[in-house]
Design brief:
Elements: H1 4-9, E1 17-18, E2 21-22, E3 24-25, H2 36-48, H3 59-79, E4 87-90, H4 93-105, E5 114-118, H5 127-136, E6 139-143, H6 153-158, E7 164-170, H7 182-191, E8 195-199, H8 203-206, H9 211-214, E9 218-222, E10 233-237, H10 239-244, E11 255-258, E12 263-265, H11 279-295, H12 297-316, E13 321-324, E14 333-338, H13 344-353, E15 356-357, E16 359-361, H14 366-372, E17 377-381, H15 388-405
Parallel strand pairs: 3-15, 5-6, 5-7, 7-8, 8-9
Antiparallel strand pairs: 1-2, 4-10, 9-10, 11-12, 13-14, 14-17, 16-17
The structure holds pyridoxal-5'-phosphate.
């Protein structure tokens, strides 16, 4: 049984007040709060177990290395990856996608080759591809979502042409909560010899993910949205693709030998992890993944589906509120604007006075904003610890906005 109150007690920050009101933290899409287990693990790592990793000539270095490397297996288990060697640690999704852009795509794609993207992508899954457009004439091919915010897999598949080398799409929109059938896209792309990169930043937080079943070539996640520390993350890479990749960054840890004349590299995945990594952040991410796996991703998804349904009914019931997107099976992420009201930032300021933390702005998704005909929205994004009562607090704070601004 999913005891949300017991879960909330694991997150110290949720007990605090903001502006004299109980905190309703509805900005999980931007970054999630951390359970005590993660906070304690980070403290323990710095207090008692800290040293650099992979340089193991003393006790603490070996201990830190063991704890750090154990996370690779946890990420593999969390993502359903067959082997932990298929996991590369990153500082987050942004680094993961840049690794693919510089390490795999840049050496292979030529002028006129295409990358298929959806208009719903986060800038982290747009800008690295623009770099290739600017530098080597790669063509970006955009797929638009439907009016309800859904993105049919077939539409993405139909955009694949003879020059397409990569399809890069999100598994869940950070603005609309739309879930994309990435398995169908990956299967069709594979049949056409086209690689797929899936941005799992949001989906992996809210639903069970199995990269073996999805079958994409690259699947990127970011630790701070997964209730872990910022500066942690990982990307799952299929071995065939890993073998094709060039290192993106050079430095310590990723080499076999360096001389004045030449350099040779260590084996993957460490070949792609140059320099001192986010040691403690990664250890913290491992604890966060354990926390989520202990709760059970199916249970988290079921809880959030209840919150989504409740919030959907309440928010769509406000006839002065424009809620963007309503794709079937979407995640518990809602973007909205108020008819005749001030800018999204004004709304979020009023909500903040009521202790309700939401995001306002373009959410690093400007092509989607343009597609929707808005410059900014407010976004309430729910997580594993949110409650129906917090939805009610959001709604009553929105009613106050309506009174103030309408
Ligand atoms: N992709 C999506 C869908 C996101 O929501 C985010 C974060 O907001 C990112 C990518 C970038 O993640 P990070 O900034 O942790 O690298």
């Amino acid at each position: 049984m999913y005891d949300v109150n017991a879960i909330r007690a694991d997150f110290p920050i949720l007990a605090r007040e903001v502006n004299g009101k109980p905190l309703s933290y509805l900005d999980n899409g931007a970054s999630a709060q951390k359970p005590r287990a993660v906070i304690d693990a980070v403290t323990q790592a710095y207090e008692m177990e800290y040293a650099n990793v992979h340089r193991g000539l003393h006790f603490l270095s070996n201990l830190a290395t063991d704890k750090y490397e154990a996370v690779r297996g946890k990420v593999a288990r969390f993502l359903g990856a067959p082997r932990e060697e298929e996991i590369v640690f990153t500082s987050g999704t942004t680094e993961g996608i840049n690794l693919v852009s510089y390490g795999w795509a840049a050496p292979r794609l030529e002028a006129g080759d295409e990358i298929v993207l959806s208009v719903m992508e986060h800038h982290a899954n747009i800008v690295p591809w623009h770099f290739l457009r600017e530098r080597q004439g790669v063509v970006l091919k955009w797929v638009e979502p439907e009016a309800d915010g859904s993105l049919p897999a077939q539409k993405v598949i139909d955009a694949i042409g003879p020059r397409t080398k990569l399809v890069a799409v999100t598994h869940m929109s950070n603005v609309l909560g739309t879930v994309v059938d990435v398995a169908a896209i990956a299967k069709a792309a594979r049949e056409k010899g086209v690689a797929t990169l899936i941005d799992g930043s949001q989906a992996a937080v809210h639903m069970p993910v199995n990269v073996a079943e999805i079958g994409a070539d690259f699947y990127a996640i970011t630790g701070h949205k997964l209730y872990g520390p910022s500066g942690s993350g990982a990307i799952h890479i299929r071995p065939e693709r890993m073998a094709e990749m060039r290192p993106f960054m050079g430095g310590g840890d990723m080499i076999r030998e360096v001389s004045r004349e030449a350099v040779s590299y260590t084996d993957p995945p460490m070949k792609f992890e140059a320099g001192t990594p986010g040691i403690v952040q990664t250890i913290g991410m491992g604890v966060a993944l354990d926390y989520m796996m202990d709760l059970g991703m199916e249970n988290i998804a079921a809880h959030e589906a209840r919150i989504r349904d409740y919030a959907r009914e309440k928010l769509f019931g406000l006839n002065w509120l424009t809620v963007q997107g309503d794709a079937p099976g979407k995640g518990a992420i809602f973007s909205f604007t108020l008819e005749g009201a001030g800018h999204a930032h004004d709304i979020s300021t009023v909500l903040d006075k009521r202790g309700v933390a939401v995001r306002a702005g373009h959410h690093c998704a400007q092509p989607l904003m343009e597609h929707m005909g808005v410059t900014a929205t407010c976004r309430a994004s729910f997580g594993l610890y949110n409650t129906e009562e917090e939805v009610d607090r959001l709604v009553s704070a929105l009613e106050l906005c309506h009174e103030l601004f309408a």
